[in-house]
Structure formats: C-alpha cells, structure tokens
Amino acid sequence: MSERIQLPIAMWRLQYNLLGGHHRMIGGTGIYALALLAGAYGCRRLLSDDPLADVAGILLNVLAGIQIFIAVLVGCNAVHRASLRDFESKMIESHRLTPMTSGTVVLGYLFGTTLQIQAFFFVGLIIGMVLTTLAKIPINSWVLGNLLIFNGAVTLWSAVLLSGLRQAKPISPAGFLIAAAVLGNLGILLLPAAGLLLSAYPVMFGFGMATGGGWPVRSAILMITAVNVVMTVFWLSAAAAKYRRPDLPALNGVRGLILLAFWTVFGTIGLVIYSSFTVGGGGVGPTGTDTLMMQWTATIILSFLVALPAIAGSVECGALFRRGTAARRWSDRVSPFLICWLATLVVFVPLATIGWSLESDILYRQLNVENPTVTTTLVWPFTLVACFLAFLTAVGAHEVFFGRVKNPRAAAMTILLAFWAMPPIGDMLWVSWITSKDAYADIEATWLMGCSPAGTIAEVWGSSSSVDWAGTTAKMLLVGLAFQIVLAVSLGLVGRFGRRKQSIPASTHPTSLQQSNDVQPPTNS
C-alpha cells in the first residue's frame, strides 16, 4: 500500500533548529552578504582605472564561480554532515519510529539541511542581478543560468542523500566532487552520458549563461533540465526505499535496470548529437570520427559497470529472502538471471535503435568498410553475446562472494575488473613482444583479447574495418568467447553450490526484519 502524501514541515523545522534557528540563519546570511559587498568594493578600488562595466563583468564571473561552489560543494557537504550526524546519534532510527512517511523524511533532509546554503545562493543571485545591470548583460541570462546551476545541484544533493542513508558510516562526497571537477571536461568529452548523469552539463551551461557567454540551444536547455528532474526523482525514490527498509539494497534489480537504461539512452542520444556536429558535413573530419568511435566503445564497455548495481541488488535480495527477510514489493524478487537478460536488452536495444544512424555513418562512410553487410551482420551478434556473458559473469561473481566475505560488492567488482581488464592488457603486452622481435609481423589481435567482454567490444568496434571475419581474427574472438562461457558457467556453479549450503528453511525464520534479531543485513547495502 502506498504511503500518504505529507508536507515535510516537521522535518524542515527540525533541521532549521539544528542549524541554529533564525539567529544563526539571519546572522550567517547577513555576514555573507556583507563579505560579498566588501569584496566587490575592494575589487572596484583596485581596478579604479578600468570602466565600471568591465569590473562588473569580472565580478560577475567570480560570483558565478562562488555560486557553483556554494550550491554544489558546500551543499553536498551539508547533506553529508546531516546524514553523518543522524547516523552517529541514532536520530535516523528515531525518525523511523515516527508516523512520518519515507518521502516526507527524504524531502525534509534534502531541503531542510540546505536551508542556509539556499539563503547564501539567493543572496548571490540578488547581488548578481545588480552586477548584470552594471555589466550591461541581460538580467534574465543571469537568473536562468543560476536556476540551471541550482537544478544540477539539487540532483547531486539527492545522490549524496541516498549514499548517506546506508547502514555503514556515510562517506564524504568531497573527493568525488573534486575529482569530477578536475576531470570533468575530459570525462564529458569521452562519455556524453556522464555529463547528464553527473549533473555536469547544467553546471557548465549555467555558468556560461550566467556570465553572458551565450545561450545553448533552447531544446538542449529543456532536455538537460528534464533529465536532472528525472534523476532527482530517481535518487529520491531510491533514498525513500532505503530509509524505510535499510536491510535491503536501495538499487534492487529493477531500479538498477532503470539506472542502466538512463546510461544507455542518454549516452546514445549524446553520441548522435555529437556526431551531427563533428562527423557530419562541416565537422572536424577524422578526428571527430576517432573521438566518436572511442565514445561509442567506451559507452558499451562502461555499461558493464553501470549494470553492477542491478545485478548486485538482485543477488543480495535473493540471499536475504532465503534467510527469511520480507520483500518490499515484487521488484525485489526479480531473479538475477532474468536481470541478466533484461540488462542485455536494456543495453542492446538503445544501441541498435537510437544509435543505428550513428553506427551506419561510422561503418559505411568513415571507416570505408569493404563489406559493410558482413560487418554489420557480425558486429551486433558479437556485441550481444559479449554483453550477456559479462552480466552472467557478474551474477556468478556476486553469488560466489555474498555471505562469504565482509564486503561482497567490493570483492566481486575487484575480481570482475581483473577478468575484464587483464586479457586486453595481456594482449597488448604479447603483441608488443612479438613486434619487438619482428617489426613487420602481421598481428591484429590474439585470443587473449576475446577472453574479456571489454576486449571483444573494443576489437569488433574499434577495428571493424580491419577485422578478418573469415580468418584468424574471428577464430581468436570465438576462442575468447568460449573462455568467457566457461568462466561464467564455473562461477555460476560455484555460486549455486554456496547458495544451497547457506539456504535455511523459511519456516524457521520470521517474515520480516522487525520480527527477527537473527537476520544480519550486509554492511554494504
């Protein structure tokens, strides 16, 4: 039965009091406003010889950077500190005993813990409106740019809130945010989906709009805003599920598939848009094609990692249910092997539909494939099989480690990364050794490359124009696929054997977590 709708007024009042009440709110906001005005006055005195419009433009750029810093970094840290405080004081457990709904608590955390941040952001917005008038920049550009920045910041707050509702100690997002800022341009260039899922695009475009650097296409602004709203709702729904049932993973099989669908759909749409600007007429030619091919391959390969939450969530739910834990709803009971098939379709369908024009453009025109019909016929089956085997191996790895180690997700990811990365590395070392002996050796790939699903994808897409489908290359890839099948089946058998040993008859267990003190949920849920 769905929970009733409540306004989170009680949570907002509680968070407001914990932040110091109206005395600290008014005092902190006033001091921040005075600091900004004093900085602007000092900058004007230092640059007294420059025109007022130029000085205002400089101050506007600085203020836009401060707005991003306040909304993103300080706002995410505020959400983290609140979740850490309630985790250490056990206040979150007392919230669960109240009649407040999970949606009420989640919205209370999201906007209650950031009240001071929102006040700072509003002050900066007002001061920036004055500076835009002095800098002769349209005021609506500054306002809409700030709203776009705030839109991306709220999405990041919701993601941090989800990570803070774990049963273990919440992890600070500062390191991730700093790394994302340092590697942001490179990551967005390689992976268009990352810019949408990590809220990088609204921050970048918002900064450009706020400083008068130009407006993106209106449809792009609407799409980015809609994507961030959808992602915010997704993270908040997962956080609400985690708050109500902390013993079960927030991203179960179905929610994990939704996240994977976001990755593939956003990624393929971004690649098609990228191709229209770079590979099409008037683009950057071969350089754009190379980058596009790298983006295409990286999007497929990294979908293996994005699918891991769905696989891990379904495996953990199944193991907990065998111990007597009650499910939240039907989506918790989806079989891991069904998740495998569905994840393959979620990756394959967007690639084969949205990206069909992209694939045709690259293979037929840019790479000058001699026999495009044969290439298209063979590339897609290899892609489909590699994706399914990757997900099947991930299911086996999680089945093997769950219940045997303290952190099964980390252990499974480590072994999977080794299986997926070591064969291509071994292939490169092998080819380098052979070419060092004979510089004219004709070697395109070894059987090691096909032993990894990532290597298979990289070979069939990255070398589509040179793959010998009727000769040695195809045979080597088939040998690698045979190894992947053996590995997936072996891990599945080991995991199934361990699952039988750990299974306990349901009649000896209660039906819910509240009725049982023996069920110990995994610490990494």
Provide a compact summary of the structure.
The chain is mainly alpha-helical. The chain has a domain at 1-246. Helices cover 75% and strands 0% of the residues.
How would you describe this protein?
This protein is mainly α. The chain is built from 22 helices and no strands. Helix 3 runs parallel beside helix 7. The longest helix is centred in the N-terminal third of the chain and has 38 residues. The chain is globular. The two termini are 24 Å apart. The relative contact order is 0.07. The C terminus is likely disordered.
Shape category: globular
**SSE topology string:** HHHHHHHHHHHHHHHHHHHHHH
How much of the sequence lies in strands comes to: under 5%
What oligomeric state is this? single chain
Major pleated sheet? none
Structural class: mainly alpha
What is the CA-based Rg, rounded? 26 Å
Question: For the residues shown, what is the average pLDDT?
Answer: 79
Number of strands: 0
Helix residue percentage: over 70%
Q: Which spans of ≥5 residues are poorly predicted at pLDDT below 50?
A: 280-287, 504-525
Number of helices: 22
First-last Cα distance: 24 Å
